[in-house]
Structures are given as structure tokens and as C-alpha cells.
Amino acid sequence: MEGNMDNRTSHWQHWIPVLEKELAVEMQKAPSPSEVHAKDHILRVLRRCIRLGEKLDADLEVLVAAVYLHDLGRHYIDDKAHGALSALKAEPVLERIHFPLEKREDVLHAIRVHDVSATPEDRMTLESKILYDADKVDTLGVVGVLRYIRHFYGRKPIDYVLDDIDARWKGLALDETRNLALQDYNYIKNYFTHLKEELGPDG
Ligand SMILES: [Fe+2]
Ligand SMILES: [Fe+2]
After folding, report:
1. Residue 9 pLDDT
2. 137 Cα: distance to centroid of ligand 2 (angstroms)
3. How far is the CA of 115 from the centre of ligand 1 (A)?
4. DSSP state, 173?
5. CA 189, 193, 197: angle at the middle one, nearest 5?
6. What's the pLDDT tens digit per position in 22-77?
7. Secondary structure (DSSP) of 39-101
8. Distance CA 154, CA 137 (A)
């Protein structure tokens, strides 16, 4: 692959079409694909990871692979704790695409600790922190509103949603992410606060 690489294009960008294909194959195989973790989610997380990764000088090759494969397990189990299963599913994919051997463990680590069952201390690499943050920010802003409504509305009280949003915001690993996402955080907090007021105590 290195031999005919276009000098104007960074190496990591070559993985995008490869991983895109693998994601489609894996999602087709999965028994219960989760619509809030589908390709549009992956592409938004990817955009944020690239932005944060360039700013913080992270390994974008590791990040891109981790983004595409981080939710594979989520299409098998409806559980917030799906990082370990995603890593299990990701390993043979990395093998199949001949992803650089020396970087595979970093990819799998970022995937394993991207969910809320891992503690901040568990996220030991810059790439794992960036993936965690970029993923959680997808639950804020206009898209966040849509995702919470699809996922929780009618099933959980609005206070649950408000607490969940705050927990995610406080749990972000990097100040850069908070700078990037402050508007989105304010937007979703206001939305659900107003919704709660309009619906009253039983809402
Ligand atoms: Fe996830
Ligand atoms: Fe995700």
C-alpha cells in the first residue's frame, strides 16, 4: 500500500474506504443493528475525532480504525457496556485488512474502553480519550435530541435524560472537547428542560 501512496493524502485517509466496506459487511452480519449507532453516527464521530486528533497530534490511523469499529458489539447486544464485545468483533477485521500490527492493540484498547462501563483511568491513551469524547458528544445538540427521543422517550422520565446528559458532559476527558461542544450541550439541556416544563410533573 505504501508504494503508491499519494503524497498529498495522509496515510490514515486510505483506511476510510476500506473500513467503510468492512463496517457494511459487519452490520449486515449482525442480528439486531442499532439505528442510533449506524453509519451516520460513525461519520459524525469520525469528523470530531479528526478535528480533535489533528489538534492534539494523535495517531489518526489508530483513531480512524477505532471509530469505524467501536460499535460493532452494539449491533449484537442492547447494552451500554459493549466495548469489550466490539473489540472482539474488531480484531478479525483488523487482521483481514492487514492493519499495521504494531497499532492494533491501540485500536482495540480505544474500542474496549469507549463505553461508560470503563472508568476515566481505564482510558490510557490519547486516542482512547478522543474516541470516548467524540462519541459522547454525539448525544448532545440537535442530533442528541433526536437520539434521546428515539431511544428513551416514553421509556424513561425526562429527569433521567437530563441526568444522563450531565453525567456525559462531566465525564468528558478533554477540555478541547468541552470547547468544541459547549453550544451543543446548552442546546440539549435547554430543550429537555423546556420539554419537562411544558409536559408538567408527569412528563
Ligand atoms: Fe458505543
Ligand atoms: Fe458510538
Report:
1. 59
2. 10
3. 6
4. S
5. 170
6. 999 999 999 998 888 889 999 999 999 999 999 999 999 999 999 999 999 999 98
7. HHHHHHHHHHHHHHHHHHT--HHHHHHHHHHTTGGGGT---S--HHHHHHHHHHHHHHTT--H
8. 23
pTM over 0.85: yes
How far is 49 from 53, CA to CA, in rounded Å? 6
Q: Which three cell numbers stand for residue 191?
A: 430543550
Residues lying with their CB under 5 A of ligand 1, a single-atom ion = 71
Contact between 52 and 58 (Cβ < 8 Å): yes
For residue 131, give the ligand nearest its CA.
Answer: 2
Determine the distance separating the centroid of ligand 1 and the alpha carbon of 107, expressed in angstroms: 14
Residue 153 DSSP code: B
Beta carbons of 134 and 49 less than 8 angstroms apart? yes
11 phi/psi in degrees, rounded to 5: -55, -40
Q: How far is the CA of 1 from the centre of ligand 1 (A)?
A: 30
Judging by beta carbons within 10 Å of its beta carbon (0-12, 13-18, 19+), is residue 91 exposed, middle or buried? middle
User: Who surrounds ion ligand 2 at CB < 5 A?
Assistant: 71, 135
User: How many whole angstroms separate alpha carbon 99 and alpha carbon 65?
Assistant: 9
